[in-house]
Specification:
The chain is mainly alpha-helical. It is about 45% helix and about 10% strand.
Length: about 180
């Protein structure tokens, strides 16, 4: 048993001696890395938008209509707006105001400026007033003065000023767009 104990002590001493004598190895390393990268970024975004002018059409007491438009290309944006007078609306409002003031003959006279109303009144046997005359006297005066009767508005073949200006504006915008596309 003593012998076994002695062998174990010697073995542990050898092991301890071996652990103390292990050489330490140190290494120095240098890593060189060259990196070349190319980055391409493509940004796709919509062009700025042409915004039409705000037209307030909520007041029903006005005899105007708002008209606005906008055109946007990749390079240029154009917007425009304006208002158009409604002459028939003005005529109806004038006739109503005159009637409300008790001036019934004047209100009928305003409405009789329209050829359709004039013809309807004649066909009904109640001719439009003529120089303060009403009834049969007015009918005789209208018959004697045919050149004074309202004329029928031509709807075909002639353009009013608003339509002409609108067409000129549209042709200008169209020609500008064609120039942008060609260039």
């Amino acid at each position: 048993m003593k012998r076994l104990l002695l062998i174990l002590l010697m073995a542990s001493g050898v092991v301890a001696a071996q652990t103390d004598d292990i050489p330490v190895v140190s290494t120095d390393s240098t890593i060189t890395q060259d990196t070349t990268s190319t980055t391409t970024t493509t940004l796709k975004s919509p062009p700025p938008s042409a915004v039409i002018p705000t037209m307030n059409n909520t007041n029903s007491d006005l005899c105007t209509v708002g008209v606005a438009g906008a055109v946007q290309t990749q390079i240029l944006g154009i917007s425009a707006g304006g208002s158009v007078r409604d002459m028939n609306c003005e005529k109806l409002k004038n006739a109503k105001v005159l009637y409300d003031m008790g001036m019934k003959v004047a209100a009928v006279s305003v409405m009789c400026q329209d050829k359709r109303v004039f013809d309807a009144m004649m066909m009904a046997g109640t001719p439009c007033p003529f120089d303060g005359m009403i009834g049969e006297d007015a009918k005789a005066a209208w018959t004697a003065n045919i050149e004074e009767q309202p004329v029928k508005e031509e709807t075909q073949g002639s353009l009013d000023e608003v339509t002409k200006k609108t067409l000129i504006g549209l042709s200008g915008v169209a020609s500008l767009l064609i120039m942008l596309v060609v260039l």
